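Chapter review. Work through the record for Disease resistance protein RPM1 before attempting the end-of-chapter questions.
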Amino acid sequence: MEAAAVSVSHGAIGSLLGKLGDLLAGEYNLLKKAKGEIMFLKAELESMRVFLERMSDAEEEEADKQEKCWAEVVRDLSYDIEDNVDDFMLRVECESNSKPHGFKGFIERSMNLLTTINTRHKIGKELQGLKRRVMEVSERRMRYKVDSTASKPNSTAIDIRLLALYADTAGLVGINEPRDELIEVMLDGDGVCAPQQLKVLSVVGFGGLGKTTLANAIYRKLEGQFQCQAFVSVSQKPNIRKILRNMLSQAGYMVLDQTNMESWDEDQLIRTLRRFLADKRYFIVIDDIWDATTWSIIGCALPENMNGSRVITTTRIVTVATACCSNSYDYLYKMKLLSDEESRKLFFRRVFGSEDGCPTYLEDVSAEILTRCGGLPLAIISISSLLASQPKMLKGQWEDILNSLGSNFEVHPTLDGMRKILNLSYTNLPHYLKTCMLYLGIYPEDYTINKNDLVRQWLAQGFCRGQWLSHVRDPEAVAEGYFNELVNRSIVQPVDTDHNDEVLSCKVHDMMLDLIMHKCREENFITAVDDLQAVIGLQSNVRRLSLCLDGVIDGTTLGATQLSQVRALARFGISTYTPPLSEFKHLRILTLEFPTRLVTLDLTGMCHLFLLRYLKVVAAYGEIVLPRKIRRLEQLETLELRTYEYSVVQVPSDIVHLRQLLHLIVPIGISLPSRIGSMKSLRTLRGFDLGMNSVENIRDLGGLTNLKDLEICRVYRKQLDETEAAKLMNILRFSLEKLCNLRYLCMESYLPSACSDALGSLSASPRLLRRLHLRGCMLSRVPEWIHELHNLYDLALGVKELLDDGVGIIAQLHSLIHLHLYIFGTPKERVTICGTGFLALKHFQVTCRWTSYLAFEAGAMPKLQRLEVGFNARGWEQHGAAFVGIEHLSGLKEVSVRIGGYGAEESSARAAQSVLRDAIGIHPSCPRANIKCDENMSFTFDD
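Structure tokens for Disease resistance protein RPM1:
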């Protein structure tokens, strides 16, 4: 049974309940008394989970020390019980798997019978001990009446966001430019018919970026230009009636004598507000919206009149911002961090009163503080206010404050308000997302987190079984939904996105990471250290350990530390030190990264990690030695090995027996063992080298029918003649025709051109493909089967010849957003992009011999925003000219041109740049032009 949802506030209770259910329902031949004790444990833990959820839902200040102490005991107890249950299950499974068949097996089973009975009696005693501990915890809860404290009233905290409403605009930095930009967007078209409709502008961004400040700056700037104005705050737990009453009051609605508006229900308030605003030009700011439902109710009160009314909403959540902007004339604005220059201005003005008032001895520490603030206005304002309040400008005090930014906010209570602002993002999350958010603390500061890595680790620990996506059968889809939710809520900041705007990697802002680590310490969720000595003497058990190690490490420093209960281990940094894996017992996740050093990493001692589900090793150079009996890691779901060229990696032959393995990623130049076709569970296979793998393995690819992600690499270290290559390609074609679940296929094989046509004649195309990259295969022309790929949004093709019929095939792909064509041959005639087809294309990238052989008709590629071109300057004198009809690309915003100047006259390169710049310059939309010539580079064509 897959683990149930895990919440950081419950420890391992969620997954533990699932395992206890397995023990009761499974064929573990438990003693009757042991079954009764498991039922007791299950019932008690269910009750504890309900209370812990109630505690987690309450505001942080509402829980007293007694409640937090009791919750900590329950969390530790749940981890210990899960460890015991895992040990029992593994013992039973190892016993059953180790017994041979036949007469020898009969003798051995008979000899082991007494041992098995003793094992079950021992487990029974362990369960009795755990039962006593659970009873003690429950009795303590009743004795100290812990339940009654959870509902006690708390004092109302001051909302420091009010400060943003009354900030002096003269002292603000980085506000004027976005303020004026958004005012221009808001008032654009005033006096023209269509834009007189109600327009909503939604400002979205991370907590502390200054959304309220920006909205307030616009509100003040436009004061008096509308008949009615109102600025209302919504917050996490909105009182809709109070908000509507506030809007009516600020807009100027006069209540009749003897009328008690306090008694009006929502419907009456909405009707009154609609009637009052119906014939007026109004401007309303609705600040800090946390869900789309709240907006839909408030939005009902805002009539869509034709008087040029405007509304600004602010939110941290992208999906809410999108819901607010439901019409084509609405606008969504994403807040940006302050630049380095803006950060310095804001900081120095607030501390010293001027931008050049910083004394020389504080310049270095000031720069480090600003680096920690990372362009977050709230952080800069909070810290500069704290520094300005110091009686003396002592460098030592500043360094203390700098150091506190990486540990506890509590060191300086003035920073507590900043944490409370950021903490709103945490407290508003459902339980399952809180756990996923805190797991981000496993990564070092400024680390670029790959989405696939993160969601696979969440799955390996059972974090992803939330009720909100219970209808989705694929656990990985659930985990990706969790990731997208963290992006939508501005918990993480996107770094890389694909052509379909799907976020592929992210970072955590330093201030948010500080909050996460504060919570991790409080919940004993993750222990992150950069000095191994800090691990020694920890009072509580380490559940998840993150090591960021630099320099020379004494390998004995962890000898006295209890590590058997660690569930996840991640080590980063340039040190070559790795903790001894023999010390770990209950590890589910192991990540080892050596980014710069030459290492020999011996992992042969990891076969006892029976619970391991995720293993990733990144080594710049060196050797990775895996255990020969890797099949013992029966739970392994992800195996990822990344190295540079010429590193030594050998995949064990018995890897084909890992029935749970879903994702296998290996470096290029690796030969996989035979019989890979038995790995039926595989969904991802990357690094499959055609030149290094056997013909049988290429044939066996066709048996991996669950594959969704397949990357076939170039021939490496082994040259193939035409006959051998043609044979391989035909076998590969038969295999690809069987892979009906593929979503991504990448071929970077660089095979002889005569062999590539095997791919052009697939009889059954993988119709679910969303991304297809065949740049390395020089196809003679665009394959016919490509027109069947109705889900394809990203296509990269290398073709020897592009004709109008090939363009017509690609033009039928109505989901296509990105197209990269590499035309290796010399065009025989001009290719024309017609005004039909390519309806969704936004990015067209083409590498060809001469730009003059591509023409665009009126209406061609109506949504194209970016055109990227590559060609050689050599031969420009004879064939050079700009694209024909580039002015017909009506949506064009940017043209990027890269010219290969190798072997060309300098005059040819200059002429090419001049002609293209002139052609782009007369485009009616004035797109940005980025034209570069590299005199040492040349694109490859068929001659």
